[in-house]
Design a protein that fits this description.
The structure holds two protein chains of two kinds. Chain A is built from 23 helices and three strands. Chain A is mostly helical. A two-stranded antiparallel sheet of chain A has the order 1-2. In chain A, strand 1 (59-65) and strand 2 form a beta hairpin. The interface between A and B is large, with 103 and 93 residues.
């Protein structure tokens, strides 16, 4: 398999689909789109099965020189594999979600989605700095279009805001990239990940990348584009925005900020922690008072993604692995929640929470799926939401009990706003005749819900499937950021003296020795 | 297949089939399947318990599946059975099986029964996962799983706003406790390098003399860990401060109250403290904290219980109070007594709840005791069951002869608190004795208001509806009959005894309430009980010895206060019914204070709920929109529009070109730099 360019093929399939869609009518376009995304899903499965867990760090590498020093350089590690899997898993569901609801300019719509799939997979496979950059920035263009053309009433403002925020970040990142290439003399990402940039340069390089990734995450206070973008985007747009595009920020931290600028990462960790806990508390409180379903879930996304940054900047095994699991879980769960909103939006054409109520009566199976995704969002053990959140918070506890305490309040606030949403939408009396007349899930919606539900439970009960591929890569990263790891404030001391061993190794063995 | 696998997973499988099958499966098959699964679990649990009782069983661990492995953090799904688990197994499966059976009758008018039974079985599965956990994270899974089931069952009547509010409150308040539990697990892993319970308990003595940093200060290691974990227990077991959800949880159907909010889930906190008793023994400070919280809860809830008029709320506060007993027992080191009270309490409190359910069933959904009265003749079997429960909870018995269940377990707790010999032990003893007085008072008050005196049914809206409906229905047949007896307080209503499927569980539980103490006290509490526990919890032989040598007045005090409470209740509600009203007039402030449950709900609403909402609106409107957007993107837009005054409005065409320019520009810039 190593000589077969499967990654290029995965980029090519949606691209071809996009071209065909663009030239076709609605019915052909959506069929082509579905076919293309399913083929990519199949290729993704092959990729996963062929991926050698515990083998070389970079696998499926492809290399071809392009014009003017540009290089076509692809390759994946376990972390990229997981995010590619997430992307190809969500794409057919997005097409399914658009199946009936998109009527105007459908060919262009599906073309935009397929182009986005190519670019997103491109982000996760690119091994050349500038190839990455192009994929990273260009991937947002179809999203602007999806919001701006097929969005709601305020779509122009939303897409403009989205654009402005991301533009700000990307300019700074580009400048930093130029500097790095000059300094290190290569555009090869794996090489750059090993390169030790001077400490003083790391500071501003980190900030330049941070400007871009913080917006993508999004971190507080550069998050205000997200609620508007989600609210205005069509359902599938929200699914892919929350499901994959937000993960590009986290991926950026894992691929660039942490391994390339470990010293600066350590230096700025307190800032990241502060912004993260601010996000957990503030955006959760904001979610509590929302009256628009999509806005509520959008704000909850900000709070959940803050757990990702908390875990990443814990610089230890549990924090890093937990962050990746949160990213995967949030991709599935928030995608599922937006889909759940889309299901009833398609029927009633409103996102106002008060217009619903009592759906458990006329849509019992919908209520069940919505409950599962709500519980996963809350982080109930046994669902995907728990594993990552638990590991990330455990990771940060080793560094700062204060940060851990405040971040963990997210489990209280998260329960409050999600259950409050669920209560108003699904429970209660049927207040509105039109909402009461809505039918339960149809076959198409079942087909979309079941895989999401199954993966939520799978990741919750047996997360090993998702943790095994990245274990070795997280190990490499952990070693790389070892110098950044601060001394935690929860150290154990005997008789006023700190034991010679570090906190991380202080375990049962030592306690036994002390006896 | 190991029996424990069937015990734990049969309810899960039944819940999934009944829940997903729901209406397609049909009502009776769903009910039969879940009930059968529970009786199967119960039938398999008792032999395990008896083998531990017989002393010829060993601790077993049955692995199921790996769960999480992250660096040196490792935990798996596994089922551990030791004495402590075995006790919980019989409690959980027995009460659950009986509650399933009871619900056939109690819920018979519901349209949505498969969902109800599925939830009940799901709850049982989660509870069994909790009690069989051999690592803290699986315990947390069960912990949250029972929370989910509790949420769903409290909100079972999801059309009722009050039920939804109560369900959500239960979940969120429990999450506050869970915050402590989670931080506790993090701390445990940091210190011990494992979350495996046997490993932690084995290594716990090594903590002696160590300190740990927490929130910038240094504390004794075991104290920090134990108090964090105990905060979780406070949430689940509704201890003072985190108790506010439990009375509201009575919004759920009564069988739920019996199973979850009396016999099993709320005792999870006590179970946790006992399970981790070797760890708690490392911190006297933490144990003091447990004692104080337990004693205060025991006292607080009993005081509130004396004024409530809703029959279920009285029993709910009673539960809260009894949990307080269990905690201070654990706090003074009498873990065996705590577990024994948990065991007996499960039977008599489930009995009281199911009995109350039978009364409510007879009284057409009326729950307010002010509208009961004179029921003993109408529903004699329910009355007998409630009497058994009341005799058990008030602890009636004669030393060395016979006593009802609570006589053995509650007296043991009080004696242990006294025998501890510390000031804190005396504090707990004093509050416990006073609470025993109140327990006796409110329990007999409940009995008198419900079963004795003259009927006061006519004032009940529920009864009026019932009579009205019956009147409409039987208009032609006995018109005169419906009107004639309206002056005897019955409004012409005829309460009926519950059907057999409700009475059989009452009977079985009544047997438990009568005999559980007498039969099992030797095993749990005697000199040789260390053999029974086999190290599953810390069993303090010295304390046990001291308990047998407390002064005679200490042994008699519970009986004395029990009789005092009985006498006061008899006087106030049987002999001189004007007396309570006179007291209310005389002590108006105290009465209102108790009636309003010490104003905890009002306080929390003012301090947490409303400020959270206000802050949410502030951050949204003032910060996000008013500050960030105004000076961020909107400010930029304003600058742009100034620069291009008169230019075209933003529209999709503009976006296209913008995007295209950006892409072309980027590619161009990069190419130029690289090719340079």
């Amino acid at each position: 398999m190593s000589h077969f360019p499967i990654l290029s093929l995965m980029l090519l399939v949606p691209l071809i689909g996009a071209v065909i869609s663009l030239l076709s009518g609605r019915d052909t376009a959506r069929k082509v789109a579905l076919l293309a995304t399913l083929v990519d899903l199949a290729l993704g499965v092959v990729l996963w099965l062929q991926y050698d867990i515990g083998g070389a760090q970079w696998q499926f590498q492809e290399h071809a020189a392009l014009f003017a020093g540009f290089e076509w350089k692809l390759g994946i590690d376990g972390i990229a594999l997981l995010l590619i899997a997430l992307t190809v898993f969500l794409m057919p569901i997005c097409i399914g979600a658009s199946w009936n609801s998109i009527e105007k300019r459908a060919g262009e719509y599906y073309a935009a989605f397929l182009l986005m799939e190519t670019l997103m997979i491109g982000v996760f496979t690119a091994q050349d700095l500038f190839l990455f950059y192009i994929m990273f920035e260009a991937g947002l263009i179809p999203m602007y279009l999806i919001i701006g053309i097929w969005g709601g009433a305020e779509r122009i403002y939303a897409s403009y805001k989205f654009f402005l925020y991301t533009l700000l970040g990307s300019v700074l990142m580009l400048i930093a990239m130029f500097w790095m290439v000059n300094e290190a003399g290569t555009t090869d990402i794996p090489t750059l990940m090993q390169y030790d940039f001077p400490a003083h340069a790391q500071t501003w390089l980190f900030l330049a990348f941070f400007a871009s990734f913080a917006v993508k995450m999004p971190m507080w206070p550069v998050h205000t584009w997200l609620p508007d973008a989600h609210v205005q985007a069509p359902t599938a747009g929200s699914v892919i925005l929350a499901g994959v595009l937000l993960k590009m920020g986290g991926y950026g931290f894992i691929r660039f900020s942490l391994p390339m600028f470990p010293i600066a990462s350590a230096y700025f960790a307190p800032m990241v922690w502060t912004l993260s806990i601010a996000a957990v508390v503030i955006t959760s409180l904001i979610a509590l008072v929302q009256t628009d379903m999509k806005k509520l879930i959008a704000y909850s996304s900000v709070a959940h993604m803050a757990i990702v940054t908390v875990g990443l900047f814990a610089f230890n095994r549990q924090g890093l692995e937990g962050s990746v699991v949160v990213m995967l879980s949030h991709g599935i769960v928030s995608g599922a929640l937006f889909l759940a909103v889309g299901v009833i939006y398609d029927r009633l054409h409103t996102r106002e929470i008060v217009r619903y109520g009592g759906l458990a009566i006329n849509m019992p199976y919908y209520a069940l799926f919505f409950l599962l995704f709500t519980m996963a969002s809350i982080g109930l053990p046994g669902t995907s939401g728990f594993v990552g959140e638990f590991l990330s918070l455990m990771g940060i506890y080793k560094n700062s009990t204060w940060i851990a305490l405040i971040s963990t309040t997210g489990i209280i606030l998260g329960a409050a706003y999600m259950l409050y949403l669920y209560r108003r939408v699904v429970f209660g009396e049927q207040k509105n005749a039109d909402a009461a007349a809505m039918l339960d899930l149809d076959a198409r919606e079942w087909l979309m819900m079941v895989p999401l539900a199954a993966s939520v439970l799978w990741m919750g009960i047996y997360p090993e499937s998702f943790m095994a591929p990245m274990r070795k890569d997280i190990g490499v990263l952990e070693a790389r950021v070892a110098i950044a790891r601060p001394k935690g404030d929860a150290d154990v001391k005997f008789g006023g003296k700190t034991p010679a061993v570090g906190v991380a190794t202080l375990g049962s063995a030592q306690l036994k020795g002390a006896k | 297949m190991s029996p424990i696998l069937i015990i734990v997973f049969a309810p899960l499988v039944a819940a999934i089939i009944a829940g997903l099958g729901n209406k397609r499966l049909g009502m009776v098959p769903a009910k039969a399947l879940t009930t059968a699964a529970l009786f199967l679990s119960c039938g398999l649990s008792w032999p395990i318990f008896l083998s531990f009782l017989g002393g010829h069983a060993e601790t077993t661990v049955t692995p199921v599946l790996n769960w999480v492995a992250s660096g040196d953090l490792n935990f798996a799904w596994a089922l551990q059975v030791d004495t402590l688990t075995a006790v919980m197994l019989v409690v959980v499966t027995s009460v659950s099986a009986l509650v399933h059976l009871y619900s056939w009758g109690y819920m018979s008018e519901e349209a949505d029964q498969p969902r109800f039974f599925a939830y009940l079985s799901l709850f049982t599965f989660a509870m069994l996962m909790l009690v069989t956990a051999n690592n803290l994270v699986q315990m947390f899974f069960g912990w949250e799983g029972v929370g989910l089931a509790s949420y769903l069952l409290i909100g079972f009547w999801f059309r009722k706003p009050s039920a939804n509010a109560a369900a959500m409150k239960a979940f969120v308040v429990n999450r506050v406790g869970d915050l402590g539990f989670m931080l506790g697990i993090f701390g445990v892993f940091l210190v011990f390098g494992t979350v495996s319970i046997p490993q932690i308990l084995h290594d716990a003595p090594g903590l002696a003399g160590s300190t740990i940093g927490f929130l910038g200060y240094r504390f004794d290691t075991a104290t920090v860990l134990c108090i964090l974990l105990f905060i979780g227990a406070m949430g689940k077991s509704a201890q003072l401060g985190l108790h506010t959800w439990l009375p509201d949880a009575m919004e759920g159907p009564t069988p739920v109250s019996a199973l979850i909010h009396a016999a099993t889930m709320v005792t999870a906190g006590v179970f946790m403290v006992c399970r981790l008793s070797p760890l708690f023994e490392q911190s006297q400070t933490a144990l003091h904290f447990v004692t104080i919280i337990g004693a205060l809860t025991c006292f607080f809830a009993a005081t509130v219980g004396t004024t409530q008029t809703d029959i279920k709320r009285v029993i709910a506060y009673s539960t809260c109070s009894q949990l307080g007993y269990m905690f201070f027992a654990a706090g003074v080191g009498a873990y065996g007594a705590a577990m024994f009270h948990l065991f007996t309490h499960a039977f008599f409190k489930a009995l009281l709840f199911l009995g109350a359910g039978s009364v409510i069933h007879a009284m057409h959904h009326e729950q307010d005791m002010r509208y009961f009265g004179g029921l003993w003749k109408k529903i004699p079997l329910t009355f007998a069951a409630m009497m058994a429960g009341t005799l058990a909870i008030t602890g009636v018995g004669i030393d060395d002869v016979f006593g009802f269940a609570g006589f053995y377990s509650k007296d043991a707790i009080l004696e242990a608190a006294f025998a501890k010999g510390t000031e804190l032990g005396m504090f707990a003893f004093a509050l416990g004795i006073f609470a025993a007085l109140l327990t006796s008072f409110y329990s007999w008050r409940l009995v008198y208001l419900t079963f004795f005196g003259t009927p006061r049914w006519a004032q009940s809206e529920h009864i009026q509806h019932a009579v009205h409906d019956a009147h409409d229905h039987h208009d032609h047949h006995h018109d005169d009959h419906a009107h004639a007896p309206a002056h005897d307080g019955t409004a012409g209503y005829h309460p009926h005894e519950s059907p057999l499927n409700m009475l059989v569980p009452l009977g079985v539980l009544a047997l438990g309430a009568v005999f559980a103490g007498f039969v099992f006290a030797p095993a749990f509490l005697s000199e040789g009980a260390g053999e029974f526990w086999k190290g599953a919890l810390v069993f303090d032989e010295t304390l046990l010895h001291a308990m047998h040598h407390v002064p005679e007045w200490v042994k008699l005090a519970p009986a004395a206060v029990m009789l005092t409470g009985l006498l006061i209740a008899t006087y106030a509600y049987l002999i001189n019914p004007a007396f309570p009203a006179a007291c209310v007039r005389r002590f108006g402030f105290l009465y209102r204070f108790l009636l309003n449950k010490w104003y905890f709900d009002e306080l929390y609403d003012a301090v947490f709920v409303r400020p959270a909402m206000a802050l949410g609106r502030f951050f949204w409107k003032q910060i996000d929109v008013g500050l960030i957007d105004r000076f961020g993107p909107n400010g930029a837009a304003w600058v742009v529009s100034l620069a291009s005054r008169g230019a075209v409005r933003l529209q999709s065409g503009y976006l296209y070109s913008y995007a295209l320019v950006m892409l072309v520009g980027l590619v161009g810039a990069i190419s130029w730099v690289i090719a340079r």
